[in-house]
Write a structure and sequence with these properties.
Monomer. This protein is of the alpha+beta class. Helices cover 27% and strands 20% of the residues. The strands form five sheets. Strands 4, 5, 6, 8 and 11 form a five-stranded antiparallel sheet that branches. A five-stranded antiparallel sheet has the order 14-15-16-17-18. The termini are far apart.
Length: 531
């Protein structure tokens, strides 16, 4: 009997069941280029025993040492063959084997802890366990950057690909879930760093730069009856020296590094394109001397050819401008983006729509297609009444009813009457009249000028849209209560009327873009944080 007990004890480890797992991750890369220094340092850490470890967390059994409130932790297991797994020459995924000692006290794993003891972060995509007793395969979708463990106050935790209502979450996982939520909320203090995952909000208190000059001071937007603005993502940068209520700003080029939770930043491929084109655009305002490269009106395009030049030939930048860029942007990010002499820096890829025909953008069909395929198609709505009316208070703004008449459009709606076209859902409207009219006096008092606009479109039998009329409106020159001064423009293909029609379409497109950025994107998606 004693012999059997000794045998069982000494052979326990050898007979213990193993659970095989596969970890898929991406090693640290910068814009498709391998960070070889990071790769070498990670290998050194491996040789020194500083590995990447994982521990399974039970979803069914509580840890007695934690009063049963937290799931039982399994023994650490380590990623295998990190050193011998060569980082791909292009940014790609690597798969690593991990072997867990199975413990019946674990039961069904519902989560796992991971510790990155390497020098560099990596992007963890998934963990898949095979042959879990009573469960078979268990998959964990991660899709998150994991930084070295000394950057975190708590170990990173990931949960299995199984959803629960809060009331149905297994008890052993509850504290892990609550702890994760606390980590994501943050404590509202300190400057947030790139490895943090905090989602927090702040007032718009970083719009000014009073340290540079008092004239650059700006009020805080949000948190007051005077400025009831939505919130922005909190960054926690130090205050300015001259105004403790104003948060300091990053330099122009470094603004690309403003805090955003790492998992929400552009991926390496998208960031590659974004950074390249952003820097090309930013370069235009880096140095005053760059303006001399254009002409006497550097802030304007004097002709359509000026626009095409950005795509066809590009503009050579002087060395001092390029030096400013290189002094502020890491070298590995510039490796393939900028040639050393600046040749063609401001050369952009040719848009598909004008590759074959430089004037294709001018057609009414393309105007409507871009409206529908663009940034703000959800604002287009079915026209339900004619002429279109306004919801602005008539006591304040007078008569704002549209001046578009049936004579403007009936010749272009395939023989239908206005009523028939409305009943058949053939007429649509892009209406930015009410949104802009109350602010036009203020807008047009600046160097920027615009109109309030209404655009009527017709749904053709081939499923495409065609613009029928564009109404451009201004406030009455005397007072708002006298209503709008409006003019209606219709399609034309020849002479001055054709040029004016192109301008009308341009104003409608500009309003659509501005409304999207300010209202649909910024205000509507952010206003819930203003309470």
């Amino acid at each position: 009997m004693i012999h059997n007990i000794i045998k069982k004890i000494t052979s326990c480890d050898g007979d213990k069941k193993k659970i095989e797992g596969k970890v898929v991750l991406m090693k640290k890369n910068v814009l498709d280029f391998n960070d070889f220094n990071a790769s070498i340092l990670d290998r050194v850490h491996e040789l020194l025993g500083q590995k990447v470890s994982l521990q399974l967390i039970s979803a069914v059994n509580g840890d007695p040492t934690e009063n049963g409130l937290r799931g039982t932790l399994g023994k650490p297991a380590y990623l295998e063959r990190w050193i011998s797994t060569i980082t791909p020459l292009i940014a790609g995924e690597s798969a690593f084997k991990v072997t867990f000692d199975w413990d019946e006290d674990i039961g069904t794993p519902g989560a796992f802890l991971i510790r990155n003891n390497h020098h560099s972060e990596f992007y963890l995509k998934s963990l898949t366990l095979e042959g879990v007793p009573g469960q078979g395969r268990i998959h964990f979708v991660c899709n998150s950057w994991v930084y070295p463990e000394d950057q975190y106050k708590k170990d990173r935790v990931f949960f299995s690909n199984k959803t629960y209502l809060p009331s149905e979450t297994p008890g052993p996982l509850l504290e892990y879930r609550e702890e994760e939520l606390v980590n994501l909320r943050g404590d509202g203090t300190g400057e947030l760093q790139k490895w943090e995952r905090v989602y927090d909000y702040a007032y718009y208190n970083d719009l000014g730069n009073p340290d540079e000059d008092p004239e650059y001071a700006r009020p805080v937007l949000g948190g007051s009856a005077e400025y009831p603005y939505p919130r922005r993502g909190r960054t926690g940068r130090p205050p300015t020296k001259t105004d403790p209520n104003t948060e300091s700003r990053l330099k122009l080029l470094m603004s690309l590094n403003i805090y955003v939770p790492r998992d929400e930043r552009f991926g390496h491929l998208k960031m590659s394109d974004f950074l390249a084109y952003a820097l090309k655009s930013v370069a235009q305002v880096l140095k005053p001397e760059l303006e001399s490269l254009f002409d006497s009106t550097p802030k304007e395009f004097d002709s359509f050819q000026d626009v095409l030049n950005l795509y066809e030939g590009g503009i050579k930048l002087p060395d001092n401008v390029l030096k400013n860029i290189r002094d502020n942007i890491p070298a590995e990010m510039l490796k393939e983006i900028f040639p050393t002499d600046g040749e063609g820096l401001l050369k952009y890829p040719m848009p598909q729509v004008i590759k074959e025909d430089r004037s294709a953008w001018r057609t009414d069909e393309e105007f409507a297609r871009e409206m529908l395929a663009g940034v703000n198609p959800v604002i287009i709505r079915s026209l339900q009444e004619f002429p279109p009316t306004s919801k602005l208070d008539s006591k304040v703004y007078g008569d704002q009813t549209s001046k578009i008449t049936k004579e403007h459009i009936e010749n272009n709606i395939d023989g239908l009457s206005i009523d028939e076209a409305i009943k058949k859902n053939k007429l649509f409207i892009l209406d930015h009249h009410d949104a802009l009219m109350p602010y036009l006096r203020r807008i047009n008092s600046t160097s920027t000028k615009t109109y309030a606009s209404r655009t009527i479109l017709f749904l053709k039998s081939d499923g495409t849209l065609r613009p029928l009329a564009i109404e451009l409106s201004l406030p009455h020159p005397e007072q708002d209560q006298f209503g709008a001064i409006s003019k209606v423009y219709t399609p034309a293909e020849q002479g001055v009327e054709s040029t004016i029609w192109q301008l009308a379409k341009a104003y409608a497109a500009v309003n659509d873009s501005g409304y999207h950025q300010l209202i649909s994107h910024w205000y509507t998606s952010s206003k819930k944080h203003s309470k």
